[in-house]
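Exam revision sheet. Question 4 asks you to relate a sequence to its structure. Input first:
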Amino acid sequence: MNVNTKAFGSLDVDEKLKINFPQGLFGFEDYVEYVLLADEEHKPFYWLQSVDEKEIAFVLIDPFLFRKDYEANITDEELAEIGITSPEKIQIYAIVTIPQDGSPMTANLQGPIVINEENMTAKQAILSDMKWKTRHDILAELNGKG
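Answer key, structure tokens:
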């Protein structure tokens, strides 16, 4: 399938890589089909690109890269919503905010993206653990200051 992307222009993407968010993302509930694209020039970041609207794209990062102690305690009910029966089949990402004013780049660890890699269904969870905030300074935490 052809996907018009915000970061890479028009791309041919295997239909099998399409991820369905039945409830959409918070604030973007009308957009339910996305693809996850690796950003080879800016590792370890990814792009979660809407299939339907090129301007809707999110930068993602694996939260375990900068927070080894990260625990995404997602309820069994939430996992069942996207058909997860085995924790080995889960991918978890955090949405990254890159401010244009030069302030620190942050990751939302309170609202992780959870992908069932078996059926390519996903959701954005909201964690109840107050340890995880919507703005974790990625570089500070990589340097052990977070």
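Marking note for examiners. The mean pLDDT is 93.
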